[in-house]
Design brief:
EC number: 4.1.1.45
CATH architecture: Alpha-Beta Barrel
Number of strands: 9
CATH superfamily: Metal-dependent hydrolases
Distance between the termini: 19 Å
Number of helices: 15
Organism: Pediococcus damnosus
CATH class: Alpha Beta
GO molecular function: aminocarboxymuconate-semialdehyde decarboxylase activity
Pfam family, one: Amidohydro_2
Shape: globular
Keywords: Lyase
């Protein structure tokens, strides 16, 4: 049986990380939130699911009720430490089944860089995940450079995950008198909006010259690249009109420094596009568990894909082992 490593899988700490006020990101737990909460917090249940559906390893992160989102920066720092300590304990119990991505207090970029360093060097985690646009600020702003510098120094990737877009953005772009507010929210969030915001995050980072400053930095983008691979040629054309131009073509930075994952979007057209634009060395497998539970599809979709066996092995585990330094 082929080894399967999925890299956008989630957890929550069973007890609240702190008593602070969270900037609620999204209620993505569907119609049975208690069952999803159990799968987020109970690692034995995760193992049972993995065993049942042929998943060798999950790379776990906190992308929902995360201490990154705490209003108070000091509480965010404490909450991230507590959450990362909890995750490291679970990984150490089953190091052949779980790896972990740290959550960072990005409200204080210097503290976030320090927490990343601690999480890798002391806790043995494999990178970090940043969800959304922190406090309304895109990550290309100069104050966030210490986080990227530390990630390059440690040789670990940062996973840029979507987050809850602002109410003003939802109201302007996705609310309409022609359909229900509920439908507008679905389009503005998981259906389209937060993917566009996350893709914009990546475009801004490349345009800022981030990869000229840190050429060995690697970022990960879910949902087949949050629409950016669809526009690489157009981005090359129009960014190339600007003087002074970027040192290289936009697509060169993207293909060299960015990895894309499936995030449970097991669809042939998107996989074909990602492989065509990125090549087989920069595509990773992911389910987005437990918010999505694709079950047999996790292994079967890849196994039945119309791609060669070498590419299947790269996507299913080899690329992830290399990128996340998995033993």
């Amino acid at each position: 049986m082929r080894k399967i490593i999925t890299v956008e899988e989630h957890y929550e700490i069973p007890a609240p990380a702190t008593k602070g006020n969270f900037k609620t990101q999204v209620n993505a737990k569907g119609e049975n939130p208690s069952a999803v909460t159990q799968l987020l917090t109970d690692f034995d249940q995760k193992l049972k699911y993995m065993d049942k559906y042929g998943i060798t390893m999950q790379v776990i992160s906190n992308a929902g009720h995360s201490p990154q989102l705490l209003d108070d920066v000091k509480e965010s720092i404490a909450g991230c430490r507590k959450s990362n300590d909890f995750l490291a304990e679970q990984v150490k119990k089953h190091p052949d089944r779980f790896a972990g991505l740290a959550v960072l207090p990005v409200g204080d970029p210097d503290a976030a860089a320090e927490e990343l360093k601690r999480s890798i060097n002391e806790l043995g985690l494999s990178g970090a995940l940043i969800a959304g646009v922190p406090n309304g600020h895109f990550l290309d702003e100069p104050q966030y450079l210490p986080i990227f510098a530390e990630a390059e120094e440690l040789n670990v990737p940062l996973y840029l995950h979507p987050g809850m877009i602002s109410k003003a953005e939802r109201d302007l772009l996705y609310k309409s008198p022609s359909y229900s507010d509920k439908l507008g929210d679905m389009i503005g969030l998981a259906g389209w909006g937060w993917h566009i915001e996350s893709g914009t995050q990546m475009i801004r980072l490349i345009a800022s010259g981030l990869f000229d400053k840190y050429p060995n930095l690697h970022l990960v983008s879910g949902h087949w690249g949050e629409n950016v691979p669809n526009f690489l040629e157009r981005l090359d054309e129009f960014t190339g009109m600007v003087h002074p131009p970027l040192d290289r073509k936009f697509s060169d930075y993207y293909r060299d420094n960015v990895y894309v994952t499936a995030s449970g979007m097991f669809t042939e057209p998107q996989m074909t596009l990602a492989l065509s634009e990125m090549g087989p060395d920069h595509v990773l497998w992911a389910e987005d568990f437990p918010f999505l539970q694709r079950k047999e599809q996790v292994a079967d979709f890849l196994e039945n894909a119309k791609i060669d066996e070498e590419t299947k092995d790269k996507i299913s585990h080899q690329n992830s082992e290399k990128l996340f330094n998995l033993k």
